Amino acid sequence: MKEYRILLYYIYTPIEDTVAYRDEHHRFCIDNRLMGRVIVSAEGLNGTVSGLAEDCERYMQWLHADERFRAIQFKVEEHDGHAFHKLHVRIKEEIVNSDLPVDPRRETGIHLEPAEFRSMLQDPDVVLVDMRSNYEHNVGKFRGAITFDMENLRELPQHVAEIEHLKESGKKIVTYCTGGIKCEKASAYLLQQGFKDVYQLHGGIIRYGLEEGGENFDGECYVFDGRVTTSVNTVNPQVISTCYVCGTSTSRMVNCANPECNEHVTICEDCGWKMEGCCSEECRTNPKKRPYDGTGYYPKITADYSAELGFRNAKGSFGTLRPA
């Protein structure tokens, strides 16, 4: 068993004083050597963090001890080390960017647990709809799923017409995403637009892989940490993407090493080293190109915020990181 864990979670629940809670949450992460990204909003909490198994366990217990977060469902994966280089706990208007006029605490699609979802895959009246961005479903998606050419969930209203024919078809619409959070709002929006029989995969692709082996998910699942992608299908895996440079079959994804490009692209190992992590010769020769270490993951550099020092508060002081 590996020493580290990666936790993925979200919850829609009211948080009144987001500034006070942001600071409290940040201090706990620093004191328990956790790295990652956490979004605090008046509508809830969304996070992906990594740390030693015992520190992650303490973090889950701490969140569950708070009445507001008791219902959080954690997706827990083993890892060799930290999946992040820094800690960011930020306040945002939404815990997932959407701009959709919905409240999933009032209405959302019917939750399907992973076993129920796996069973429904055999139903010919089920239509799977991917609610992730194009670079995510390009590297991996459920077999036969409908995908949209969108950069983020804000663009969903522009693509609803593509599935308009499903309204009167009698089909069951099942939405899915990485961890389930996008589907809470996406399925609510579909219901608002007049779609019926709308479901969502509860816990997303990651939980389905952990609990049901990821059957019928082809390719790799894009994740927002240092792994870039992760395997979820141990039953009948297939590679569906090709190298952006040479066209060979690969599920290996990187961010282009040229920060002025930073495109998410699939590049095989050989081309990765040959192109120094870049998607084109133009990017490879860009003077601002970042050093390539074989991962294709480049954490953002944020002023006044680091895992060692924490978030600079209004008084100008920092938190401290407990020694390992």
TrEMBL record:
Q: Which GO terms describe its biological process?
A: tRNA modification
Query: Which positions fall inside the Rhodanese domain?
Result: 122-217
Which residues are listed as membrane-spanning? none
- What GO molecular function terms would the record report? oxidoreductase activity, acting on paired donors, with incorporation or reduction of molecular oxygen
| Alphabetized PROSITE patterns for the sequence | RHODANESE_3
Q: What is its EC number?
A: 1.14.-.-
| Keyword terms of this UniProt record | Oxidoreductase, tRNA processing
Q: Catalytic activity, per the record? A: uridine(34) in tRNA + AH2 + O2 = 5-hydroxyuridine(34) in tRNA + A + H2O
Q: Which Gene3D superfamilies match?
A: 3.30.70.100, Rhodanese-like domain
Alphabetized Pfam families for the sequence: Rhodanese (PF00581), Rhodanese_C (PF12368), UPF0176_N (PF17773)
Protein family membership = Belongs to the TrhO family.
Query: What does this protein do, in the record's words?
Result: Catalyzes oxygen-dependent 5-hydroxyuridine (ho5U) modification at position 34 in tRNAs.
Q: What is this protein called?
A: tRNA uridine(34) hydroxylase
Lineage of this protein's species?
Bacteria, Pseudomonadati, Bacteroidota, Cytophagia, Cytophagales
